[in-house]
Design goal:
By secondary structure, the chain is an alpha/beta fold. Helices cover 44% and strands 17% of the residues. It contains 14 helices and 14 strands. The protein has helices at 2-28, 38-54, 119-125, 151-171, 186-198, 223-230, 233-239, 258-268, 270-286, 289-302, 310-322, 325-328, 366-370, 396-412, and strands at 66-69, 72-82, 87-94, 103-107, 130-136, 178-182, 207-211, 242-243, 254-256, 308-309, 332-333, 336-337, 347-353, 379-384. The strands form three sheets. A nine-stranded mixed sheet has the order 1-2-3-5-4-6-7-13-14, with helices on both faces. Strand 1 (66-69) and strand 2 (72-82) form a beta hairpin. The longest helix is centred in the N-terminal third of the chain and has 27 residues, at 2-28. It is globular and about 75 Å long.
Length: 414
């Protein structure tokens, strides 16, 4: 009933959005005398905000077509190089990059948003790297005959993707790949790195950068961590898991709906989101279309959500947030204990935001202590002053302060 109720609400809100948009256009039309009066313009702007706030969004495009480097504009090529049921591997490169440039796998979160949330991350790292990114699928669109997808499968995908990147790089005279995990995938990326170090895999990443990741959520617990700890895993199984409706390709699959995750994130900072829309209205009224569009672009991305498989979501809640399996040394992959002490080849960079309200200070830094078999010369920590969770991988602080640290770390350990 949960998903069906949401679909009914979504269809109703789409109608509201369409009516508000149409009314806004009519009031703004030069053929309408009301458009020349203050009340008409103000009402049109208010309806524009309502139309945007009630619209539903599909999967956005990356839309990275060119990049400027050293004063020259270069065309960007986007390609899907590995296709898998629950996620593809995309590659971005531009004409100004040599083929033996560092190859970086950016591991996007599977946490309710699409990989395009990291568009700014990809754009900035394209300055110096051939960039690959995990483009996770919307679970409601994956037919049930494709089977399940859990943390073990996630780790398998990462190792498969790294092997593909290694082969591509070797064919072009490059070296082993580098990996960057943003937020939630820090845990499976850390585990995959340990497994590959232990087996001496030729695709073992040269560096692993973890940004705002919940490695040990007992450090500076946030509201998200507290919520996961207060409820038993059966509560999550019974309360937030739903079956995909019949109109989708994944009909019958058990999922954690993306709209649930979005609702949780929105409720954490509801007053801020309401103020953002009020500011959008003021920008429109003042004729500042550029600022208003920037807010619209952010929410177009932020409100585009996708579903996660129930098994992946529940396993993540239990292993990462409740049992703290990774820092406790009890995390397993396919029944094999993951030994973080086996990491001795991969240099590790832990990045945290001073004002991160999702992954508190110390949660990612804990990885440096857990990798006790790695030389201290191959470890680095960076705390981004004034950066919140989103600001770690997007925006001016990311572009000007954090990305240069990542680039220097990759260069020093390549």
């Amino acid at each position: 009933m949960l998903y069906k109720a949401y679909e009914m609400q979504r269809n109703w809100l789409n109608s509201v959005s369409t009516m508000a948009s149409l009314s806004s256009e009519m009031l703004s039309s030069q053929a309408n005398p009301w458009s020349y009066l203050g009340i008409g313009s103000i009402t049109a702007n208010a309806l524009d905000v309502v139309a945007h706030a009630t619209a539903s969004y599909g999967k956005p495009a990356f839309g990275i077509t060119e990049i400027e480097k050293d004063g020259e504009v270069h065309a960007v090529e986007e390609a899907t190089v590995v296709n898998r049921p629950f996620g593809d591997l995309k590659r971005f490169r531009h004409t100004g990059l040599p083929e033996d440039s560092p190859r970086l796998l950016i591991v996007a979160p599977m946490s309710g948003h699409y990989a395009t949330l990291l568009r700014g991350t990809v754009e900035r790292m394209l300055q110096s790297c051939i960039v690959y990114i995990t483009d996770w699928a919307d679970a409601k669109l994956v037919p049930t005959h494709e089977g399940s997808f859990d943390l073990d499968d996630y780790i398998d995908y990462l190792m498969e993707f790294l092997e593909h990147i290694r082969v591509e790089g070797a064919n072009k005279g490059g070296q082993r790949p580098h990996m960057m995990a943003v937020c939630q995938p820090s845990v499976p990326a850390f585990a995959a790195t340990a497994l590959m170090n232990a087996s001496n895999s030729p695709a073992t990443p040269q560096t692993l950068t973890m940004m705002g990741g919940p490695i040990d959520t007992r450090e500076s617990p946030t509201t998200v961590n507290d919520h996961a700890m207060k409820k038993p895993i059966e509560w999550f199984r019974q309360s937030v898991i739903a079956s995909v409706p019949m109109q989708y390709r994944g009909a019958g699959r058990r999922v954690y709906p993306g709209f649930m995750q979005l609702s949780a994130f929105m409720s954490m900072n509801l007053s801020n989101h309401m103020m953002s829309h009020y500011e959008m209205f003021k920008h429109l009224t003042a004729g500042d279309e550029e600022s208003a569009q920037a807010t619209k672009d952010f929410y177009d991305e932020y409100r585009a959500v996708c579903d996660m498989t129930a098994e992946f979501y529940l396993q993540t809640v239990e292993e990462v947030f409740q049992k703290h399996s990774l820092p406790n040394g009890t995390f397993t992959h396919r029944g094999e204990l993951v030994d973080l002490g086996a990491i001795d080849q991969t240099a590790i960079l832990a990045i945290e935001g001073e004002r991160d309200d999702i992954s508190g200070l110390g949660q990612t830094k804990a990885a440096l202590k857990l990798a006790n078999g790695l030389s201290e010369k191959k470890k680095r920590y960076y705390m981004a002053e004034g950066a919140g969770h989103y600001g770690i991988f997007n925006g001016s602080k990311w572009r000007d302060k954090i990305a240069p640290v990542v680039e220097e770390f990759i260069a020093a350990n390549g």
